[in-house]
Amino acid sequence: MSPMTPARVTGTPGRTRVLVVGGGITGLAAAHRLRERLGPDAEIIVAEQSMRLGGKIRTVDFAGRPVETGAESLLAARPEAIGLARAVGLGDAIVHPANLKPALSIGGRLVDFPAGHMMGIPGDPADVAALADAKERPDNGLPILEPGADMSVGALVRERLGDEVLDRLVAPMLAGVYAGDVDRLSVRAVMPQLAAALERHARLTEAVAEIKRPTPVAPPAGVASDASPQTGAASPHLNPTPAASDPAPRDGAASPRLQGAKPVFATIDGGLNRLVTATSAAARAEIRLGMTVRELRQTPYGWEAIAGPVPDPIKITADALVIAVPASPAAELLRAVEPQAAAALSGVAYASVALAAFAFDRLELPERSGFLTPASDGKTVKAATFASQKWPHLGRRRQIVRVSMGRLGEEALLQYDDATLAKTALRELGEHLGQRLPDPVEQRIDRWGGALPQYTPGHLTRVAAAREALGDHRRIAIAGAAVDGVGIAACVASGRSAAEAIADQILADSR
Ligand SMILES: Cc1cc2nc3c(=O)[nH]c(=O)nc-3n(C[C@H](O)[C@H](O)[C@H](O)COP(=O)(O)OP(=O)(O)OC[C@H]3O[C@@H](n4cnc5c(N)ncnc54)[C@H](O)[C@@H]3O)c2cc1C
Hints:
- This protein is an alpha+beta fold.
- The chain has a domain at 8-55 and 273-348 and 456-510: FAD/NAD(P)-binding domain.
- It contains 15 helices and 22 strands.
- The strands form 6 sheets. A 7-stranded mixed β-sheet has the order 8-7-18-19-20-17-21.
- A hairpin with a 6-residue loop joins β14 and β15.
- The protein is globular, with a radius of gyration of 23 Å.
- The relative contact order is 0.20.
- The model is unreliable at 1-11 and 217-260 (pLDDT under 50).
- The structure holds flavin-adenine dinucleotide.
């Protein structure tokens, strides 16, 4: 079908039609699950504003290799993303990172990221003594969090373990996933397992130690995700195997020790675009590219969406809707439908990042997967991934390095031209590595404006309230990184769960 088919969408009478708004991995996972639940006759339409599917997933040919310009890894410790890859026929293409240790760049030196921590918070202050003064402040004997309460990660760690642990360990870890401000990130949303433990512990280190302690019985398959959609973010930069100390967010993931040698992270040989394409194909959905959905109306029979170009809009009627777009367009769409849900979504801020990729013909890199940097070092580069070392399937014929720049509040960075960003990235990369770098044989800059949602304290409560308000309307569901977690695995879980809710209602009504 032509991406911009101008004809009105009229549909086939009697056939159930579901409109999925947003062709990122959330929308595609929802479409795929809807197909499984509703069968071959259902009409599933995916309306995507841009001219390609995938959203924050985009693989390009770079220096002759399939290199990711956005998300690069799947959390394999929870089942959803890997499960989807297998379900759409990519089981044989799942590959894992090399067993290389990640590093922290401190004072111009790359040092090992300490073991035994959760997102940089140590279970034992002694583990991080070489890097930060982590003596825990005296406690008052009361649990740190009251049931259901929330606070920022920054306030929690600074109060209990001090500035150095926050700045050198926790902030770089969280910057790797959210590019966020630790003082604005919700503990309950970004580390739900820790939040639950804080309801039982008066000491932060004890709560972390409890979570890191191996439990005698391995959880059954499917439980490894902690059933929490908020987890599942994979650091775009450092995804070591469990044998290495693991700075990537694994909150909610089963302890690596429970999984034997099973790696925590994975990707798809040939690029994550393959997951996008294969999911779309398996969903057998009608894909409409260049189709911005601008307005939603509830009708006595279902929903009406106004989409397409403003001068020549088209009307799409549907029995049900899955909204799988970022917070701001989602809020816009919901404003006339359910203002309370719209208000909850419009409060979600987003951070922007720029990624530089370099290919070098000859470059000796440390045997690591990459490094993170503390924000306080005043540099633009916040992390680097030695992609060709980290991912053996890329091969080392050329060294490919991805450098990430930009944290929340540094949006102006994206305004610099490509040459300036590449020059800055290259200069700082050389400083972190302590060597003058050769000229790259290929380079590219990718800007991701407003790409990473920031879950501030109370996020989960606001999302729950939005969903409750939407519950008054039939056959509409919200899903995706705006609400349920930034990681691809979390997005797949979110899309699938929206599809389940919609399919349950449709099937119940048809009985
Ligand atoms: C640089 C970067 C690196 C990352 N690295 C990782 C990683 O290594 N591992 C990991 O697990 N996660 C990573 N993430 C996070 C992850 O990629 C995203 O959170 C996830 O892909 C979001 O999927 P989504 O479908 O919810 O949203 P999106 O990917 O944002 O898709 C939403 C889609 O909706 C479309 N849209 C918006 N408005 C409308 C409208 N009105 N009508 C129709 N369509 C509309 C958009 O064009 C877009 O295609 C990374 C993110 C970034 C930015």
